[in-house]
Amino acid sequence: MAEISTMDRNVPGDIGSSPSQRPAGKRLARFAVRLVSPVAIIIAWQIASMTGVLSPRILASPGEILGAADRLIMSGELITGLAVSFLRVLFGFSIAFVVGVALALAAGLSRLGESAIDPPLQMLKAMPFLGLLPLFILWFGIGEAPKVGLVAFGTVFPIYLTLHGGIRGIDRKLVEAGRTLGLDTAGIIRHIIIPGALPSLLVGVRYGLGVAWLSLVVGEQINASSGIGYIITYARDFLQTDVIVVCLMVYAIMGLLTDGLVRLLEAYALRWRPEVIA
């Protein structure tokens, strides 16, 4: 019986097998099947544009979008705008990460800190933060500060909420065991609190990066002189839907790439978890 169960576990393509144990051909086939509907949509989109059913003023054809992307890349305008937008996200997210982690530690490790910090943050979280852009312009002017500030303000809440929840969700018995082993407060935070709350923090980082790019889309529409949002604003004035779609795709691709980067970091930092290894 033991030999039979062992053989069953090693059968390729078994439902319970991990993705790494499945044949490469089946994985490739499943990937090809998933591509059918997107490819069909693109073909139908191109046909509708070529036959005049879909006006270029409403939405450019896939061919025109590829041509616009090629022009923007070759001219260097897209690369320069992407670099500026990426730096805005980087600065805004860095500020939000430091502030969010500090607030979550203060509120999660202390009842007094939670009473003082959590209520106002919960109130601010309920506000539509994108609507704060006019106030940011009044406070900080029309330069880089309101754009970076909007990214930071929108991103701080996912980081704070997930890390605070992760800290509060740590088993108190682990803390007691740490004190029994002679760990002081700093040791408990380093060896118990931070590792236990790290999965929640990484979830907040992934969600926060998505919010950061969303915030930037809005922030760069206001008096921007550079960046992807500036290209969109310029294209909107001249009804260039192909350029607008290219820029929106760049935002989406950057969001996917940054999310993938955090996934790699998560796989490395949490490699002791079986679900990450699998």
TrEMBL record:
Main location: membrane
Pfam families membership: BPD_transp_1 (PF00528)
ABC transmembrane type-1 domain residues: 82-262
Protein name, entry field: Sulfonate transport system permease protein
Keyword ATP-binding: no
PANTHER family recorded: ALIPHATIC SULFONATES TRANSPORT PERMEASE PROTEIN SSUC-RELATED, ALKANE SULFONATE ABC TRANSPORTER-RELATED, MEMBRANE SUBUNIT
GO cellular component: plasma membrane
Family label: Belongs to the binding-protein-dependent transport system permease family.
Residue intervals passing through the bilayer: 31-48, 86-109, 121-142, 148-167, 188-209, 243-265
Matches recorded under InterPro entries: MetI-like, MetI-like_sf
GO BP terms, alphabetized: alkanesulfonate transmembrane transport
The keyword Transmembrane helix appears for this protein: yes
Swiss-Prot/TrEMBL keywords: Cell membrane, Membrane, Transmembrane, Transmembrane helix, Transport
Subcellular localization: Cell membrane
Topology versus the membrane: Multi-pass membrane protein
Domain of life: Bacteria
Region of interest: Disordered: 1-23
Job description of the protein: Probably part of an ABC transporter complex. Probably responsible for the translocation of the substrate across the membrane.
